Input
Amino acid sequence: MESIEVTLVNSFTDNGNGGNPAGVVFNADKLSDVQKLKIAQAVGYSETAFVSSDDEADYEVSFFTTTSEIDFCGHATLATFSTMYQIGIISAGTYVQRTKAGMLSVCIESSGKVVMEQQLPQKLDCFSYQEISNVIGIESSILARTKLPIEVISTGLPDVIIPVPNGYLDKIQPNDDSIADFCKKHKVVGFHVFELYDRESKLTASCRNFTPLFGISEESATGTSNGALACYLTEHLALGSDFVFEQGRAMNCTSIITASVQLDDSKIVNVKVGGFANSIGSVVISV
Output
């Protein structure tokens, strides 16, 4: 048996509060995928990141939920690089991580904020209001009030981006089985549901994220889904190129995620997601 230390980190915190917890394991080069999955299951968080050396990138990072490996995880990336900065492994600057979603850059600002590059957006599918109404329990006529489409967008993981009218976000009572069945059928990770704030607000939108297919009923902060949302809003609404998203309000765990989109001749050429993280301790797990 080998003892593995896992650092526990809250990502996308709001002035030190809220956030989404992730586990981080350093020096993971010799761990097998089976061991990584066992560690992630023992930690019990939605995702745990495993950091290894790499010949080309600065680090190779793999991500495991309690059920399987996934290509990328924004909040676990934030947890990883924020921790390395806080304990002095790395200094402020730009680094490259190898992930199963590709080689992606991560910038650490002197304030400790971590800004992560995402994959360029891929629009993979779309659904009618009626199809989604049946799953999230909001009448299709109410969903139609937004006059915005329901689309599957990936900046690393495919999420269903679902707009709802103001005042309906917190009314959603997710049926995990129905959402998981829908996601499995359509080969998507989860639902990212949002309602817009008034343009005068410092916040762009409030969000909820449901990924029961991967053992997560609801997440209080997610990176790739908000990168996808930033791309969605850039295409469908003229809201500028910088966004601030609130997530986790319905869980009493409000988190803040920033996102930015760079355009070149109306085409998205860069997507970044950022935020702050706080270490909340560590555990030792035997594998």
Remarks:
- The CA atoms of residues 4 and 20 lie 22 Å apart.
- The chain has a mean pLDDT of 96.
- The radius of gyration is 18 Å.
- Residues 122-275 form a domain with the Diaminopimelate Epimerase; Chain A, domain 1 fold (CATH 3.10.310.10).
